[in-house]
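ENTRY TYPE: paired fold submission
RECORD: A
CONTENT: sequence, then structure tokens
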Amino acid sequence: MTRNQRTNAVLRFAKTMLVGAALVVITNGSLLAAQFPTPADCPTSNKDRITAYKFLAELTYHRVKSGQYKTAAIAAKNLDFTWDQTNGCLQALGVSHEEALNIDGLMDAFLGAAKGDGNAAPDLTVVSGAYKKYIDELDRLK
């Protein structure tokens, strides 16, 4: 599989996740129902959730590295949206509230660095450092 094919597959996956989250909102009739899943709504392992977060973070990071800032911004929004819709599953699977807040802070730092200041390209050194801290914390939860 070429790099472009892999990227297209990643984007299709991200779009599928967004459509799925939208269906959850529509099906449950409220945004709150989608934001705070019950244990029955969650996968049986943290690995399933963490894989999705890592996948979208990797896509964002590689797009920033390659100078594709618009695509990076879309992937970043997808990661942020996916986190907001599903992070309750981490807590349902035994991740403490403090750990979830820590991961959220690391993700926000990474996404903020990836977006830059709007006037210039993001600082790749800062983006790389924030990405590594975020991924390392996700890996620790597996």
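RECORD: B
CONTENT: sequence, then structure tokens
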Amino acid sequence: MLLLGAFSYHHLEGWGWLDSLYFSVTTLTTVGLGDLTPHTVGGKIFTIVYIILGVGILFSFINMLARNTVAESTSGRRLSQVLGIRHLLYGDSPKRHKPEVKK
């Protein structure tokens, strides 16, 4: 997605490769610093489509990574148990490990 943006801005706006990649990154990460802006009609239309598709793809990818990470870390346990917040959600007291007293 970033290479598509860099290639498109390079040709539509006449920017250098670094500026094109920089604008692609700041656009897709929704930072939008405003130091570069498209001035051509083609660049503006491409930016509209690029933001809608690119941000959707980026957030879907992040969501997929998060779900896989949680699924691997829980390994059958509830997310509330993994995060240690079960007592906040269900009102029961958290289990505390008491040290064994040696006699």
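NOTES ON RECORD B: The two ends are 66 Å apart (CA to CA). Residues 14 and 20 are 9 Å apart (CA to CA).
STATUS: closed
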